[in-house]
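Hi V.,

You were right to ask for the full record rather than a summary. Here it is.
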Amino acid sequence: MSELPAGGWTFANPGAYRRAVDELEQAGQKAEAAALLAEAERQFPDDPLIYIRRTYAIMADDPETAAGRWSTSRARFPQYMDGWVHGALLLENFGRRQAASILLDDAVRRFPADVRVLTVRAYFAQRQDNWAEADAFWQMILQENPENEEAIKGRENALRMRK
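Predicted structure:
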């Protein structure tokens, strides 16, 4: 997979593109992986996993474009929490904390049992020094998974800071 074929990459399905991107990334060929993701999105524009994965790739280099793509992701692929969580994190980075909070609260309503959503929401509350709210989200995670070490540590921290 280390050399680009003369005619470019052509795969029969989105899964084959994703596997090829994995191989390129594991080989340290990030630029090639990004190019292949762009081609995959052109070939399969309705595949949510390719769209979301490409948005992750764009996020580090162009957060404003990624924020727009996360908004599009929420509209096109509402069954995936990534658009809400990462859209909110970017909004927070842009100093739009209230918009980020609204988006995260919507994510919690849509994905009430998703540990990733609850974890981001707990950390968001901590960054706002809202330790009672952070504790409540850590507790929600622990109700589903009492062994979750991140939630155990997060809750301990929230309880310590509430005092």
